[in-house]
Write the structure tokens for this entry.
Amino acid sequence: MLAGHERSLLTAPRVFSGDGLDVGTSVLLDETPEPPQTGDLLDLGTGWGPVALSLALRAPEARVWAVDVNPRAVDLVRRNAERVSVANVTAALPDEMPDVRFQGIWSNPPIRIGKQQLHALLLEWLPRLEVGAAAWLVVQKHLGSDSLLRWLDEQDGLAAERWTSKKTFRILRVERVED
């Protein structure tokens, strides 16, 4: 279910959550506020695109960027955007992204890549938020959500808080507070 409607979408093996919408992403979509209606929004680690497509459907005047390191995932997002008739999604590999500031970032980040790589990934993308804009991250409690929250809150220019908890997940809200 995306943006309140059942959708028939393409998934694939070797793409995150290749057999359908995973619980963490579902929690992220259910527990975060409506996205800004205009500007640039980012789905970081898009997989087959459930977050990007939901954002595009909920904010048709916004430009939604769906970024993933997996070319197969990027292709799936493009095909799924066509299936649900949204023209405001741009799927891209990280090195294809222009220099854009985001009004919001949503992510079910790849925690299992390791702490050092995860931190590098977040430090690459979170500073691209507009000042005052927020990122929404869903992280399983037992996979280090609380330590990630502490680390995020210690980073210059960011303020992090636990937004909510549901099932075995925490939603972290990370605001960019200064340049």
Summary: The beta strands are 40-44, 63-67, 89-92, 102-107, 129-140, 158-166, 169-176. Residues 150 and 160 are 8 Å apart (CA to CA). The helical segments are 23-31, 50-58, 71-83, 115-125, 145-153. The two ends are 37 Å apart (CA to CA).
